[in-house]
Records
---
Amino acid sequence: MALFHLHVTQVKRSAGQSVVTSAAYRAGEKLYSEYYGEVSDYTHKGGVVCTDILLPPQAPNQYQDRATLWNAVEKAERGKKAQLAYSFDIALQNEFSMQENIDLARQFLSDNFVSRGMVADFAVHSPDKEDGGISNPHFHVMCPIRPIEPDGRWGNKQRREYVLDEHGERVLDEAGNYVFNAVSTTDWGKPETLEAWRQAWAEMCNAKFAEKGLDCRIDHRSFARQGVEQTPTQHEGPTVRAMEAKGIRTDKGNLNRFIRKTNALLREAKEKIAALIGWLKDVKAELAKPQPPMLNDLLALHCSIRNKGAYSNKAKNANLQRHAEAFSFLQSKNLYTVDDLDNALHAMQDKIDTLKKSASAKQSRIKEVNELLRMVDYYKSGKPAADKLKSIRFEKSRQKYKAEHDDELRTFYMAERKLKPHFKDGKLPITAWRRECEQLEQEYRDIQSELLPLHADAKKLWAIHYNIYEVQHEQERQNAATRQKKQEIEHLFE
């Protein structure tokens, strides 16, 4: 069944993500992260059909190596909350052969991504190779957000666009710094660019369907934007419309009401069928997943590992106490599996980020309003001098007065310029500003009160997450050692 799916997210440090780990998972490889000092090994992952890295002409050739590329991206980004890469997942079509799908994906990336100067690291997956059932071929693409300059170096994500006054001069803030807006250096993150990519992919697939003589088609638009095939209503004409407006039922009016009701039922039926199909696919995918390990088992194993190295009963009891507290805390949050923990951490981090963003916006507005109130004070104190200057007719006297009151007049004219857009009927909303500032300050305090327990819970969950990682890492090490030993024994009998 023809299917359209093209979804994009960001790989970012603020969510605890690593582009090296993400790239290793998608490619089914073993990669070392220089930034985090850890190895991500997904060589056991099945269903990876092919991988490749497509580079624009200005990119260094060494970026053909996946570890080199993504470690360079990590190195170029210094911020603890840096946005690192765009991550796309795109559905392939069961109506095409795997090679046709691969060729189509490669062409799409070359025409739409690489042509814009983007690096495209893609991997084609076919999980049905392992699980059986409904085929779900798809490909993942990772693209660095930071562009590459013509000299091969990483460029800036944003540039400064300075604010100019009515004379075309740069505007200074109170600290003497130029006021500017941050503008993206590329159009890669714009909604209209994503829309163009979605449309391009749908058109390429549809062209392939037509080439193969297939009737099926896909549409990048949502159902709401597509509309549903409807029966057209009958033209009523002015006479019928006038009668209907007066409450007089007509044959044509009754027919059109029936048609509209039928169309609504058809739309509802199609939506329910689409939702059912989506639900069935989700159920199939969920059933195909292996059962996630239970957190209590992993914590118990972690406690056991620590107790093996403990030197005293006191230390062992302390480990048991920490395990009991951790498990009790997880139970209070209804977290029982590793997936539960990961989802909770992501949701909590999203909420924290949202609250921080809201707090920052309120802080900015408080600062803005306080600045306006400060300008009001400047305006009030300087207005008598400005009015006096206007009343002086002789130029020499004016110049003398201006020189004597230079600082006062400069401050007044600055305040007047900044307050000019806010005058209404010759008045300023000073009282409203003060009330707004008080309300914003209270809302900011409320947000901080909400953030405190969230930060505390997040700290506990991240500590548990680290303990779980240690256990899983140790399990993987033991499994690797077992596999190695098995291979050595098999070689003895060859």
Note: The first strand starts at residue 6 and ends at 12.
---
Amino acid sequence: MNKAQKLFSVSLLALIVSGCAVTSKPIDRSESEQRAKSDLVDMYKDQEPLNGPLTLHEAMARAVKYNLEARLKVMEEAMAQRQVDLASFDMLPRMAMSAGYAGRNNVGASSSQSIQTGTQSLEPSTSQDRDRRVADLTMVWNVLDFGVSYISAKQQGDQRLIVQERRRKVVNTIVQDVRSAYWRALAAERLLTQIDSLMARVEKAQTNSEAMSDQRVGDPVQALSYQRALIEATRQLEDQRRALSLAKTELATLINLPLGSDLKLAAQSDYEVPVLKVGLSRLEDEALASRPELREQDYQTRISAAETRKAMLRMLPGLEFSAGGHYDSNSFLVNQSWADYGVKVTWNLFNVISAPAAINVAKAGESVASARRQAMSIAILAQLYVANANYQEALRQFKTSQQLSKLDGQIVGQLRNRYKANSIGELDLIQGELNTLQADLRRDLSYADLRNAYGQIFASAGLDPLPVTLESTEIKSIASALATREDGWAQGKISTP
């Protein structure tokens, strides 16, 4: 090989290697912007419009139907079902079909040689055309593979049920989050207007005080102390406003409303105190039987047991049935198309050697799943008792906050009368109104905590807020089902999912 040929070979090799190199191009910003616009449209499309003030159960219904995390779990469940359908095809026989053309540049001839004398006994001859068309259709079915595939399909079905239990948990969590956010948002809607009005009065009083201080009217120390008291009142109001202002944003996010939407909540005329009418022993039984986490572990245990059966099956010999149809256009053949069939026993002896270890691993998985379930059961019972303790504490705090709110309301009424009679200054009235506002805020927030703690008891017991089947997927139908289920709980009627 001369120098020019070597150079050509090296260049050709370099070209081939460079052609096989793979590079990744960064996503262009315009593509990201287009994707963002598309996602913004898809996130909020096909949603029922808000009609009037939003009730608690309507908010829960919108979250169940439109929350993006809940939608994701629905899609995961659908995908798991498709995986079950796909796993079922593994139980079918293996069937292969082939068709093609075969040819060669010369005749496929051969002769025969004697093994005794070593002489050629036949002159070269052929029994095959140089160009042929062939086709084959073969089917192979192994009974052992069928059994293993059947167990694998059952395991895939259990995986789908695990996904279903995880969806139950997500729905329960979302409903609880909506409950908490709704009552806090309702408190914000009640009190934000009062806070803004009082903040405007405080700012006006502060402006007047600063003007009097600049004119050196009155005692400077008293004036500065007065201004300090007003600034402190402003700070308290700002803290309260900040605590309430994000409640509606959180609620809008949970029910998948565009952020910044004008969200009006249905006003509550009174503070109905929820009463727990179900005994803890009944809730314990329900929690141990219905919690999604424990049911998931039940399915996981079943999957581990199936893995043990698969390991035992692989120790056995397999019975394989085969059948096929063939075609060959070779003109020398007497029968250009034919069928064949057979039965044979197959046995992978290495599986016999490795099977005990595989069985031990599978049994260890069963033991781990059982231990995990028992540890989780203790944790779930603890959650239930903590939820009940939180409910009792929230009930006491709400009653105390309600009494303080009532007393502060009476006090501020007396202060207003004295202020009109010029018996007290504006600062005393503002401080009294601030105390009343804070008392109302504590009352509303403690009521929100009470409602949340009450709902958390049933969530800890693994009770589904929705029935298994719904009459309709419309918001009103879902909201009605949610209200009916909670009314039943309030009466002490709980049912299994």
Note: The mean pLDDT is 80.
---
Amino acid sequence: MRINAMQEIRKYWRNYIDGGWVDAEDGDRIAIENPATGTQIAEVARAKKADIDRAVASARAAFNGRELYNMRPVNRGALMFEIARHMTEMADEIALAECLDNGKTLTGGKNEALAAARYFTYYGGLADKLEGRMIPLGADYVDYTIPSPFGVSAQIVPWNFPLQIAARSVACALATANTVVLKSPELSPLSTYFIAEACHRAGVPKGAVNILCGYGHDCGAALVAHPDIDHIVFTGSVATGRAILHAAAERIIPSIMELGGKSAAVLFGDADIEQAVNSTASGIFTHAGQVCSAQSRLIVPKALEDEVVERLVKKAKSLSIGPGIDGHDITPVISAAQADKIEGMCLAAQQAGGEAASGGRKAAGLTGHFIEPTIFTRLTPDMTIAREEVFGPVLSILTYDDPEEAISLANGTDYGLCAGVYTRDLATAHWAADRLIAGQVFVNEWFAGGIETPFGGMKRSGYGREKGQEALRGYVQTKNVGIRITGGGGGRPGG
């Protein structure tokens, strides 16, 4: 990719409502910053309640018009293949947007674009495979089920992986004939507009997909509380998820919640330590640790602690720090506020008795928002750094004496998004995976899996599943149809 030919991006981005690009009703805008430099790179139209009202009305009209629903599912799938084609064609533009407003490398940004495109091909291929079933009730009856869309799906995506997360929920919604109003993150919204552009170019029915940018307190709150919303999909913090669920409870709105994590991997004594170290580094330092499923804890046998820490510190110190556009290993965190929060948690951990074997501070000599790759040792399980999500490149190491203690430590937080196991022994892997309380368990490779594998949390990490075939079930509700096909009398409740 030629960086020198790709330094400029559009300076103003409009919201996409009812099949067209529009300004905010009051003309307000949000300034978008490059986290690698701290400088403004663009503005986006700032959506508020009036804009949400317009978008929801558009999505409702599209749903009630039944254009998506009445399509043969195979044709809905073909439409989604077209979306994917356009996403792929725009991959270089998307990569630059992801790099400049999110801090990713150009390679990482392009991978995001290609992954987003694949969500549309994957779920496009499943659009004609979501089936009901026949239920035998005897010769006098025909009974069957229909997987029915909910209607208007409100979707709120986070700032760390806005494109992929938006793509997976929009794709599921379209495959199941729901319509969408999506709020993009105010810190890094640019890549989500390419989904709107791809939908527009592909000929998605007007109003079926609406994408707006706004702040949570007015735009997001107006969306989830809107009386014409039928379904909510949210990825983000536990605190915000809790507030959304309160709003959903008022109207009994079904929701999919993918919330925070404090995911741990257990390293057993027989593990390939080099493999575990490399996998752990990828698990915690990718995208500067701003990953909900990051491997933020490593639980090691006491006898191996010194060796493992030494290798991890060496690995951390080998990583370059700087802007993603220059291809560095440790890229910026999203904002100055996020950098302050991470550094504050690190300083508090040291004051509580933890030891930063590596890092623990903001990176010196850089103008953007950079945190050193950090490894904490000498921790106790009750310390905040070992229990609460940092959302930065910060690894907590805990030690154990026996396997049962290791499992207890891994399960000893309020979260249950992901977990990991490092071992050469298959029986040990199965034993540990069975006991770890997490929606996804990785063995010998953090982030093992892909678009095909169901993803979601247990405990405070949320409920419902994204990705994989299982995700589609979260976008439909079962309708049963019972038909008496011969003459006869009345039935009775319960059969």
Note: Residues 1-6 have pLDDT under 50 and may be disordered.
---
Amino acid sequence: MKTTFKLIIVFLLASFVFQSCQDQDDVAAPVSLEVNDFIWKGLNLYYLWQADVPNLSDNKFANQTELNTFLNGYSKPENLFESLLYKPESLYPATEAVDRFSWIVDDYLELEGQLQGTTNNNGVEFGLSRKSTGSSEIFGWVRYIIPGSDASTKSIKRGDIFYGVNGTQLTINNYQALLFGSNNDYTLNMADINGGAFTPNGKSVALTKTVLDENPILINKVIVSGSHKIGYLMYNGFYSNYDSQLNDAFGTLKSQGITDLVLDLRYNGGGSIQTATRLASMITGGFTGKVFAKEQWNAKIESYFNANDPESLKNLFVDKMGTTPINSLNMTKIYILTSAATASASELVINGLKPYINVVQIGDVTVGKNVGSVTLYDSPTFGKENRNPNHRYAMQPLVLKIVNSVGYGDYQSGLVPTFQLKETLSTLDVLGSTSEPLLNLAVGKITGTAKTKQTVPGVQFDYFKDSKSTNGIQNQMYLDKAPEGLLKALE
């Protein structure tokens, strides 16, 4: 039976990828086009908006020769990739762009590291904002310092402001090269702000990038306030190689008998869907086997799974990670802190929990990334096995939209907080301190001591970019691998 099922899948997949070449003349793509060939065929099969891109149509090319002619028109794989995206952010204004998050790399080793929190990094995690509305000049502000990094040994901390690199003012045109270029060493030029005016203060901080693994669990503590024992977890990335540590952190909170939980995702740009599912299961604990989230793929993949294996597209609450029991807190209410940088898997947790428990969101409107990706390699199955040894290109295209158990997933404009409270430059208090405004509001809501209306003084600033969203990670929500039927069948 299994053999028959596999043969059916093989046939269907072959039809998907090569339907455009049904009159195939058995001409393979030459070596010079093998990267481009991989890009087209991977997107033709998996891309979420494949049906909306004319050059990805199954009927666009009669055979491989015609496809080769098309591919030969692009000298750089990156240019071909971008041309095959549906209304990419790079070519369309923000109000019209659809695909804001698909990307391609020329070294899958770097990509794999980034998706697990490994980056070439000096340890300064920061936000970027325009100096004023419409200004091309921008400034940076330190969100936190990664422990064990070069920055952790330097005189720089949360709330510090920088305006330049190596004496050059940061602008929307040069920040990529200055902060994220090949320069492993640079000096940040610092500034003070008074009444909205930025003044260089003559201070500078020399920093060096190293290969850095960031543990996403930055803070895990218990705050006692009256009869409440409030667990506070600041979690900065859904990196699956830290799932055991995440489970241990919940075990610590559980052992201390917490009555309430505050989950701080304000600087969490996302990551693994599996990790998000496990985190939600740690928070709740009473919904094992029920649907946390459902995946919606392009029409041809969706039709196959709906007919043959619809359960593969469901992400269920779990009580184990492999054979390890999950430390669940059985919360019926949770307080989640967000910002304009909170994205993808973080938003998935919020949206996926809402049908089951009371989710109180505090902070700012989130990014609005309700779509996910998967890593595609140049191999017969688009998986890791038998990768083409001639290059290291890989793609991270959007392949799915994700919805919760009641079918809601239309939050592309962001998730609006229950209580809106933006961070300000003058109120960037110590993270984890009960005087820090967002955490203070959460504790106040838990204990019933919060003011009806929060007014936090300080200079407001509009979020532009941050160190994670511009450092290759790109607000990702990704599958650790494609659904079993698609890749395993071709092994």
Note: Residues 1-25 have pLDDT under 50 and may be disordered.
